[in-house]
Amino acid sequence: METIRLPAASLALFILLFLFTNSASGSYPRAQNVTWKSTNFKTILTWGPEPSADYSYTVQFSVVGQDKKNDPNCFRRSATVCDLSSSLKDPKACYTADVQSEPPRGETSDVIEPPYTSSPRFCPYKDTDIGRLDFKLEVSANKKTTLYVTDPLTAVFKDGRQLNIRDIFADDLAYKVTYRRNKSTGKKVHFSKTNVIELPDLDRGESYCFNVQAYISSRSPNKQLGELSQTKCSEDKDLSIFEEYSVGVIAGAILVILLLIAIIIAVTVICCNRRKNAEGRRSGKEGVPLQNV
Hints:
Blueprint: H1 8-26, E1 32-39, E2 42-48, E3 56-63, E4 69-70, E5 81-83, E6 95-102, E7 116-118, H2 124-127, E8 134-139, E9 145-150, E10 153-158, E11 161-164, H3 165-169, E12 173-181, E13 188-192, E14 196-199, E15 208-216, E16 232-233, H4 241-244, H5 247-287
Antiparallel strand pairs: 1-2, 2-5, 3-4, 3-6, 6-7, 8-9, 9-14, 10-11, 12-13, 12-15, 15-16
């Protein structure tokens, strides 16, 4: 087998080209584990590892199918997080992001295309987590229970106004109420399309405990429910007889009692009269003298 020998000048040029290519393509480590984290449309891109003093990270993002843009807050930084909330302006669009490894800020490089790692696709409307809801529990004078749910604010602004989850999801948003009798493990579920939720079928005077979650039926099953709220319980209050029963029921019960008393009195009088009559007949027979035969 014949050995190929290169001239010294050609060998030196080859080595220089190799070193330049290696420096251009592999001088900085690529980002790893690029991940989206989002709650109520506050969206953070995270990755690793922490960079050394020799390089930094730049984040580019784009709507799927459109040109990429640099995020001005994440340009040649040593951080491994980037808040893209204000950049992802359309909640119903889908996005991708690239994390590029570049020289530190203020330094230049001959690298034409820096090494980068792309994120998975992220669609805020379908993928952002919905945080914990808050609600007010009210039991009226007639013992009707009502929950007043507060829709949490999001990181989305429109016309200078901060939007809440109802503003974004509109009719797609519902509420799942899970409730149980206090000190009981049996649970029931109620769904409501409005944030004023009436629960009329509860036992009067009993204490109940409630949790509320946002529910978005148009999402995939693992993303339909928001975070579970804190548990709130109504007071356990002893009811008077007038609160426990209606006026009609009380009046009916009184009539029944009066009727029973009347029957008892009538039966007692009849029995007494019969006894007196029987005793009178016996006394009459004993007073009649015997006849002679």
